[in-house]
Amino acid sequence: MYSRILDLKTILKRKSIFLLGPRQTGKSTLIKNFKEPFHFINLLQNGIFLRYQNDPDLLTREFSHKKSELIIIDEIQRLPELLNCVHLLIEDCQHRFLLTGSSARKLRKAGVNLLGGRAKQIFFSPLVSKELGKDFNLIKALSFGLLPSIYSSVNPSEDLEDYVGTYLKEEIQAEGAVRNIPSFSRLLQVAATCSGEMINYSKIASDAQMSPSTTREHFQILYDTLVAIEVPSFFATVKRKAIQTSKFYFFDLGVVRAILKRGEIKESDADFGRFFEAFIFQELNTFSNYNSLSTLKYWRSTSDYEVDFILDDKMAIEVKATKKVSKNDLKNLLALKEENLCTSFYLVTRDTHEQIFDGIHCLCYKTFLDKLWEKTLE
């Protein structure tokens, strides 16, 4: 078991929390190791689920007469009706809630407003390099992802295959999200091949043999079940007009490779650079989310200059898998630098020599990530 970076205790001192994350990211383990006393309601247990399903107001009657305390409700998306009672107990009794879930789909479908800002929404990610410490291995992370149970597994390929099957069976089929599971499986495969690229619904629809409208609906399911993450465009540039189409990434590299039925990656593989970039995305996205920064973005001009990530609308980050930096690797960052919109610029590579070219910091990914999590980047 690895110690997680996310400090729920500090946040819960002042606000309730929606902790949303895909299955097996470690939400339940985090709860089990919570030090503060709390009352636990596990909606995965059928007996408990049925009690509250038959009488949602039971929650209010149980806690309205008690002093302020911490109440944890696991898998809240199974019973969105409880949020009305949660709202009242926060407002009238100053109770604090930690509400966990693996999908936002049923919450949105029920028209729930996630308590109108009364609870902080946090997306819980798989492990990051800082949490693994000396156990972190880049090739292992790129090949099998960073879900805690998978990273420590003796048979990660088989476990990842089971994970994807469980996702289709429990998140998609059981909840009736789509009628045609084989069609949705095809979409998953096509989406996995273009993770990290700009979203082209027409092309994806053609490759998956479905209509563009169905493709958009299925992508929304991927977003709602937290399996895919949309990355919007940074389009504030003036000298070079920006493309406004979003990109997307899967939440975990191991899941992508399981969908594609791929095993361990090699440095010589043609898609090594793409997976390396996606790994840095996952670290940046988790850092941004845990620290309540602006949505992570990317920039691409109509003249094909592209910078992989813009962190908090201030830091421009280009990712290259190269072990030897050349001036050609800087051209995209230099183009964006001319706009005078970002305050710092980083080229993240596997080159172990730290350098600065024209105000652009060139760092090995290990150094960059250490500085990122220590919050010492300039």
Description:
There is one protein chain. It is globular and about 65 Å long. 40% of the residues lie in helices and 16% in strands. The chain is an alpha/beta fold and 378 residues long. α8 crosses α14 and α11 packs across α12. The model has no long low-confidence stretch (mean pLDDT 92). The longest helix has 19 residues. The two termini are 32 Å apart. Strands 8-9-10-11-13-12 form a 6-stranded mixed sheet, sandwiched between helices. A 5-stranded parallel sheet has the order 2-3-4-1-5, sandwiched between helices. It folds into 2 domains: 116 residues, 3-Layer(aba) Sandwich (Rossmann fold); 246 residues, no CATH class.
Structure summary:
This protein is of the alpha/beta class. It contains 17 helices and 13 strands. α16 links the parallel β10 (315-319) and β11 (344-349).
List keywords for this structure.
378 residues, alpha/beta, Rossmann fold, 2 domains, 6-stranded mixed sheet, 5-stranded parallel sheet, 13 strands, 40% helix
